[in-house]
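Supplementary Text 2. Reproducibility record for the structural model of the 477-residue chain.

All settings were left at their defaults, and a single model was retained for analysis rather than an ensemble. We include the record here because the model underlies the residue-level annotations in Supplementary Table 4.
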Amino acid sequence: MKKSLYITTTLPYVNADPHIGFALEIVRADIYARYRMVCGDDVFFNTGTDEHGLKIFRKAESEGKEVQAYVDEYAAKFRSLKEALGLTEQLHFIRTTDPPHVQAAQEMWRRCVARGDIYKRKYKGLYCVGDEAFIKETDLVNGKCPNHPSMDPMEIEEENYFFRLSAYQGKLVEYLSKEGVILPEWRRHETLQFVQGGLEDMSISRERARLSWGIPVPDDDTQTMYVWFDALTNYISTLGWPEDAEGSYKKFWEQGERLQMAGKDQLRFQSIMWQAMLMSAGLPTTDRVIYNGFITSGGQKMSKSIGNVIDPMTIVEEYGTDALRYYLARHVHPFEDTDVTMEKFKEVYNADLANGLGNLTARIMQLAQTHLPAPVELPKMEMPLEMTRLLDVFEMQKALDYVSSRIQGLDQTITETEPFKVVKVDAEKGKKLITELVKELAFIIVMLEPIIPTKAETIWQAIQENKKPENLFPRKE
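Retained model, structure tokens:
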């Protein structure tokens, strides 16, 4: 039965160029969106840019740019990912500076106020600009935020609005006790344990005199909305909430499957703060949040100063979009950290794509072009259970291991049956062998279409035209 799926990435800050970590998140989301569309489901796929906050304001200042011009420049770079990473046409792009989003964030605020979950008080604490969040002294490592060891936390004392996160401890425990609301499961247990340890109310505004770049707090022009309270609301503002003039919110959020993708450092924001905000506003919570690990390089966290940053656009320029998509799906662990280097990438490209799928396609389609009088009539093909059961739980590595086994099996069949020899002594038998090879290749392409859509289309067209395609994955020396 046809279903409605809503899937979103987090919104990256526009304080740096797109990096391979975000490419991992959005490519995996795109693969899952394409898979569900192949299954016949309606999909709303969301991404965009998070453009408010002190970190962005300071970055624009440091570059001598007017802040709106700065965020416009970076938003354009992230928009360009749609073509560069081969993302589906179903992708929707939202900016937190879009007027409809601003209005939605203010409506979220008003609903939480109406529930009695927002109040004002003075606060003094340590603030990490990198995380755009207050942190406890007990969380510091050598006096620094563990996520931003190069930054000194700021001590801030001011009067802010607070969200009664503590009031939702019981409901969050109930929510997080449901199997499947977080993948992998062990991260769900980790988050549940954190909530059971007790929650503190969260500061959700900043004095406008200190931070003017952000959404004004409704009915108080002395305060600016905390960037996270603002940004999290994008997940429903992109659907047209609260007016829902086109019915997308009702179809995809209220009645559909709600799925989010995020990095492992987002647990407290996505599965605690955001869910509590939804509960306060009387809205449905997220069905599942999928948390991926980080990409390291050469055993170290990527850093410009170390010189080990991998630019996804550089890979696309040299190897092509589908090669990057394939690598991120097959050779980066779905939930744990993974070390990536250009040497590893090149090795995988040559082994799996140039010598693997590319060479196999060339061999089979050369035989078909030479010996078959017409294109092979293909039966109706659907994604096999071996793939769907793995993709449904985001085990993309294992799903592609299965595809790889089919590719290797097809290569072995050619070696064992030698159709190129048989067709010379028994034309009909040889043609039957070649026909079966083409059918198996087509089945493999059905499985690969969500992962490498451009090359899959090229191979599918070659099968339909009964022609050997141009070199799909030129070998790199």
